[in-house]
């Protein structure tokens, strides 16, 4: 897991970023306020599983709701900053329902904060801080309040007083720290990946069992696969990171199909998009599974997506940004679709991009970490940094309404392949390369293995070589 020393370092790095952004850093103190998430209710008194506010979790790791982390400087110096974690005061009656309170000293030891106080004292603390600091910058995201009750009961009135000299959100600074993973974080992502691998392997085994006993009276439903994956994740101390996509056939052309309630047709491809969350760190994997011999059309699309993905993975280096990789993906996909007759050969520029986007309407990937779509404030134009983890997930979705009649056998095919990649100083590392059931599908290792004509092979080879990667 994450050590207490790492939490301390994270807080120190955040204070430094905030101070470095201040031109008058030696004369003005900072006050940073990061609330924990509130509990969420399914219905009256019935709770959803709690998920902590990610930035709060990153800075102290305390897993309880309705807390507040306060960081503040003295003398405008990063080495003179202090941290206070405010937690709800427990009551005797509450112990019956929620169990024993951890205790202030224990919380301070596990989080490394300087002091633990009760949330009922926050207003008093803020009042004293204002009295002692005539000039200070307040770092608090009031536009997107993480904890609406805390904002309404404490911060709204504090903001109205206008005692601060500057009001900023520290969210971007926190996310700029989060986007580069420490060795401890990478270890947790690897563990989450091991659980994901076990979940996919369990699905693989389940399908083999079903196929060996298959009859007209024993259909397989998408929700059965979801249930197996959820079971394996929880059995290993994790949980599903999101509602998975278990989409048979044409349903895979709906990017966020999550109903997962249909019968699986063994003649169709099955798209599985699922991942695990383990101790706050997520994985995000997509595989396409076939139950019977692949058709020519299925092999063509799977082969193309694999070739595009390999070219994109090789670009996961500090030379490129996520948007650079996306633009390469769209170029390869678009020109291939023109060769095959899905797109007009005359399309170019923005019309070309829009045409390709119709068949792959999402980005090539996203940052990955404590959140599934991690650090959304970090620009995708930013060059990748060693230690960043991201997804590479090209796809082709051949919705029937987009397919000309002379290519009607391609209608309804949906293929997305998604890997989780660790950026290093040198070659990228595929953290998900062991996740099955990818090996049950047709694998095109190079253009010659794709069931596509020679002209298309030459186009793909040329496009991939244009990345400048050997």
UniProtKB/TrEMBL annotation:
Which Pfam families does the entry link to? AMP_N, Peptidase_M24
Kindly indicate whether the keyword RNA-binding belongs to this entry.
no
Look up the record and name the cofactor or cofactors this protein needs: Mn(2+)
Q: Which GO terms describe its biological process?
A: proteolysis
Record bears the keyword Mitochondrion: no
Question: Can you name this protein?
Answer: Putative Xaa-Pro aminopeptidase 3
Keywords associated with the record: Aminopeptidase, Hydrolase, Manganese, Metal-binding, Protease
Gene Ontology terms: cellular component: mitochondrion
Please report which protein family the annotation says this sequence is part of: Belongs to the peptidase M24B family.
Residues forming the Aminopeptidase P N-terminal domain are 2-147
Q: Example GO molecular function term?
A: metalloaminopeptidase activity
């Amino acid at each position: 897991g994450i050590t207490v020393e790492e939490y301390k370092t994270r807080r120190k790095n955040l204070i430094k970023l905030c101070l470095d952004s201040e031109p008058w850093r030696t004369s003005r103190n900072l006050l940073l306020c990061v609330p924990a998430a509130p509990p969420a209710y399914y219905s009256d008194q019935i709770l959803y599983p709690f998920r902590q506010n990610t930035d709060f979790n990153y800075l102290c790791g305390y897993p309880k709701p309705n807390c507040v982390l306060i960081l503040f400087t003295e003398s405008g110096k990063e080495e003179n900053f202090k941290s206070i974690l405010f937690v709800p005061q427990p009551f005797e009656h509450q112990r019956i329902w929620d169990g024993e309170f951890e205790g202030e000293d224990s919380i301070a030891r596990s989080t490394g904060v300087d002091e633990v106080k009760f949330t009922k004292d926050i207003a008093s603390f803020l009042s004293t801080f204002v009295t002692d600091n005539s000039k200070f910058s307040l770092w608090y995201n009031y536009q997107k309040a993480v904890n609406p009750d805390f904002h309404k009961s404490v911060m709204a009135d504090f903001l109205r007083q206008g005692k601060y000299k500057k009001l900023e959100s520290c969210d971007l600074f926190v996310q700029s720290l989060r986007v580069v993973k420490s060795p401890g974080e990478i270890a947790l992502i690897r563990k989450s990946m091991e659980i994901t691998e076990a979940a996919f392997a369990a699905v693989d085994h389940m399908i083999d069992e079903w196929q060996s006993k298959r009859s007209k009276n024993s259909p397989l439903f998408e929700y059965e696969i979801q249930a197996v994956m959820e079971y394996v994740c929880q059995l290993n101390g994790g949980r599903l990171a999101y509602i998975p996509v278990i989409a048979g056939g044409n349903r895979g052309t709906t990017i966020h199909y999550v109903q997962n309630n249909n019968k699986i047709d063994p003649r169709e491809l099955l798209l599985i998009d699922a991942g695990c969350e383990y101790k706050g760190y997520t994985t995000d994997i997509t595989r396409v599974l076939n139950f019977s011999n692949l058709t020519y059309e299925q092999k063509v699309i799977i082969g193309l997506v694999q070739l595009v993905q390999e070219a994109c993975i090789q670009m996961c280096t500090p030379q490129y940004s996520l948007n650079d990789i996306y633009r390469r993906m769209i170029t390869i996909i678009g020109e291939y679709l023109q060769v095959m007759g899905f797109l007009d050969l005359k399309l170019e520029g923005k019309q070309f991009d829009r045409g390709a986007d119709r068949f792959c309407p999402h980005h090539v990937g996203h940052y990955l970490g404590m959140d599934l779509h991690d650090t959304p404030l970090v620009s995708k134009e930013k060059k990748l940094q060693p230690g960043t983890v991201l997804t590479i997930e090209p796809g082709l979705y051949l919705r029937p309404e987009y397919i000309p009649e002379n290519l009607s056998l391609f209608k309804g095919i949906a293929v997305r392949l998604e890997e989780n990649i660790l950026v290093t100083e040198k070659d990228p590392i595929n953290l998900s390369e062991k996740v099955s059931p990818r090996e049950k599908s047709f694998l095109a290792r190079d253009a010659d293995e794709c069931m596509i004509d020679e002209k298309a092979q030459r186009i793909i080879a040329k496009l991939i070589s244009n990345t400048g990667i050997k």
